[in-house]
Each structure stands twice: as structure tokens, then as C-alpha cells.
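From the methods appendix. Each design record in this collection lists the discretized structure first, followed by the designed amino acid sequence. Records were kept in a plain field format so they could be parsed without special tools. The example shown here is representative of the layout used throughout.

RECORD:
C-ALPHA CELLS (83 positions):
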């Protein structure tokens, strides 16, 4: 997966050199497609990141509870601590 991520990381690195801004992906979308798409992509990235962080914590909680033979409800408690 790391090898597959290298082209994406290079793309963002080169875009950041050409368009230096703290806006990240929304800045790139705005430059390419206009203000509306830039705002929309920024909000969608924020929402996806918010849900993604919750899922990563829950995945870790499930792994730990499975490894230590804990009840299923313990996965949620572990996820809350990890979050």
C-alpha cells in the first residue's frame, strides 16, 4: 500500500509547490474547477476524514478485543479511548 501511495504523495507535493496555500485539496480543486467545487471538495474531505477517524479507532478496538478475547462491547470502549 505504501508503494501505491507514493504517486499520490508526489502529486500533492508538486501541487503544493505550484499552489502554496493552507487550503490543501480544496485549493487545488478551486484552481482547477472554480470556487463552488473547491468549497464542496473541502467540506466533503472534512466529512470523510471525520468518519474515517472514527472507523480507524473502531477497527483498532475490534482488533485488540479479539486478540485478548474481550467481549464485543469492549471494542467500543477501546475505540473511545483511542479516539
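DESIGN:
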Amino acid at each position: 500500500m505504501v508503494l501505491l501511495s507514493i504517486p499520490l504523495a508526489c502529486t500533492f507535493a508538486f501541487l503544493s509547490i505550484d499552489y502554496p496555500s493552507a487550503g490543501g485539496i480544496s485549493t487545488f480543486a478551486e484552481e482547477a474547477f472554480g470556487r463552488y467545487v473547491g468549497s464542496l471538495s473541502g467540506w466533503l474531505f472534512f466529512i470523510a476524514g471525520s468518519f474515517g477517524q472514527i472507523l480507524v479507532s473502531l477497527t483498532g478496538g475490534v482488533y485488540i478485543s479479539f486478540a485478548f478475547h474481550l467481549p464485543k462491547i469492549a471494542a467500543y470502549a477501546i475505540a473511545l479511548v483511542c479516539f
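APPENDIX NOTE: The CA atoms of residues 3 and 50 lie 25 Å apart.
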